């Protein structure tokens, strides 16, 4: 997963729900120094909550993505984020920064 272009991450999930697996895995895939390089907000929902789990990410170029982690799964979430990160990497390469 390309995390160099991420500036802010927000997640919300019920840790007791099997549907929260994607959000938990996503947080575990972040590098150890992630809190020093980006803002991370995690909202733990109560056991009785009916609110859906989500992963919301903000990139360096200002684009925001709110992904339904219950529907996409970890592979889908990572593909979506890597797709935009590769676009940013190409733009950075072309401008020579």
Overview of this structure, please?
- It contains 3 helices and 4 strands.
- The protein is an alpha+beta fold and 97 residues long.
- The protein has a single domain, classed as Glutaredoxin (3-Layer(aba) Sandwich).
- Strands 2-1-3-4 form a 4-stranded mixed β-sheet.
- β3 (54-59) and β4 (64-68) form a beta hairpin.
- The model has no long low-confidence stretch (mean pLDDT 92).
- Belongs to the mitochondrion-specific ribosomal protein mL53 family.
- Its main location: mitochondrion.
- Pfam families: MRP_L53.
Short description:
The chain is an alpha+beta fold.
Output the keywords.
97 residues; alpha+beta; 4 strands; Ribosomal_mL53; Large ribosomal subunit protein mL53; mitochondrion; Ribosomal_mL53_fung
Care to count the β-strands? 4
- The SS-based structural class is alpha+beta
Total domain units: 1
On the 0 to 100 scale, the average pLDDT is 92
Unreliable stretches (pLDDT < 50, length at least 5) are: none
CATH class: Alpha Beta
**Would you identify the CATH architecture?**
3-Layer(aba) Sandwich
The best one-word shape is elongated
Question: What is the secondary structure topology, with strand pairs?
Answer:
Layout: E1 6-13, H1 21-28, H2 34-37, E2 39-44, E3 54-59, E4 64-68, H3 69-95
Parallel strand pairs: 1-2
Antiparallel strand pairs: 1-3, 3-4
């Amino acid at each position: 997963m390309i995390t160099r272009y991420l500036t802010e991450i927000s997640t919300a999930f019920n840790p007791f729900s099997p549907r929260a697996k994607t959000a938990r895995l996503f947080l575990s895939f972040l590098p150890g120094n992630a809190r020093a390089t980006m803002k991370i907000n995690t909202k733990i929902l109560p056991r009785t909550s009916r609110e859906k789990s989500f992963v919301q990410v903000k990139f360096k170029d200002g684009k925001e993505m709110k992904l339904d982690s219950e529907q996409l799964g970890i592979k889908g979430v990572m593909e979506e984020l890597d797709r935009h990160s590769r676009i940013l990497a190409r733009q950075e390469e072309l401008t020579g920064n």
